[in-house]
Amino acid sequence: MSDPMFNQGQDVVVRRLGVCDYTPVWEAMREFTAARTPSTPDEIWLLEHAPVYTLGLNAKREHVPAPRDIPVIHTDRGGQVTYHGPGQVVAYVLLDLRRRALGVRQLVSALEQSVIDLLADYAIDAHARRDAPGVYADGAKIAALGLRVRQGCCYHGLSLNVAMDVEPYSRIHPCGYPDLQVTDMHTLGVAAETAQVADRLIAQLAQHLGYTVHPAANEISPAAKTHAHPAACHS
C-alpha cells in the first residue's frame, strides 16, 4: 500500500544506493517494474557501478573488441554499448509513463536537457544529438542514455561521467561508433564530487519531469538496500 501522503502523479522517491554491481540492480529494476501497480510511486535510483560493459538491444558483440578484465553484460535496454564505472553518476528512472502521459521521446529530451542544464551550472557548454541519444561536450560524449519500456512503465536511465578513468572506453566502440571520443567533467576542468553532482542532477530531473522529491527520499533507507540486493551495494 502506498503512503497516503504521497501524490503518485507529482512526487518521486529518490534512493541513493552507493556503489553497486550491475546485474543485481538490473534484476531489481525489472522486479520493481513487474510488481508495480497504478498506485506505485515513481522512483529514481542514484548509484555508481563497479566496472562493467553493457550491451543494449541494438549492440553487437564486436563493438567490445578488447574488454580484458571488465565483464560484458547483454541487457534489455535500448541503445548500443557503453561503460559504467566509479566516478560516474548513474540515475535509473523507474516511472509510470502512462500515468504521467509522457512519451518516450519526451522523456529522452527531458533527461538530456536535465544533464545539459546541470553542466551549464558548471560552465560546460553541452548539447544533444538527435541521431545519437546522449549529451556531448567539447566534441566528446559525456552522458549516455538507454531505456526500456514495459507495459507503459520505464526503467534503466542515464549515466553522467563526473571524474572517472575513461581508458576503458578505448576498448569498445561507444554507442556503436569506433571513433567516438568520451570525456568527463573533471577533464573539462570541473572539480566536483559525484555526490554533489548527483544532488544537482536530481534537482534538474525533478524540474524537467515535473516532480517534487518525496520528503523521505534523501535518506538511505533499508528499503532502498532491499530493492537493490544489499550484498551488491556499498555506501
Which architecture does the CATH hierarchy give at level 2? Answer: 2-Layer Sandwich
Whole-number tally of structural domains: 1
CATH domain class name: Alpha Beta
Provide the helix percentage. Answer: 10-25%
Number of strands: 12
Mean pLDDT score: 88
Largest sheet: 9 strands, mixed
Shape: globular
Which regions contain 5 or more consecutive residues with pLDDT less than 50?
215-231
In short:
The chain is of the alpha+beta class and 235 residues long. It has 5 helices and 12 strands.
What does it look like?
The protein has 235 residues and is α+β, with helices and mostly antiparallel strands. It has a single domain, classed as Bira Bifunctional Protein, Domain 2 (BirA Bifunctional Protein, domain 2, 2-Layer Sandwich), CATH 3.30.930. 25% of the residues lie in helices and 29% in strands. The strands form two sheets. Strands 1, 2, 6, 7, 8, 9, 10, 11 and 12 form a nine-stranded mixed beta sheet that branches. A three-stranded mixed beta sheet has the order 4-3-5, with no helix packed on it. Helix 1 links the parallel strand 1 and strand 2. Helix 3 crosses helix 4. The longest helix is centred in the middle third of the chain and has 18 residues. About 7% of the residues have low confidence.
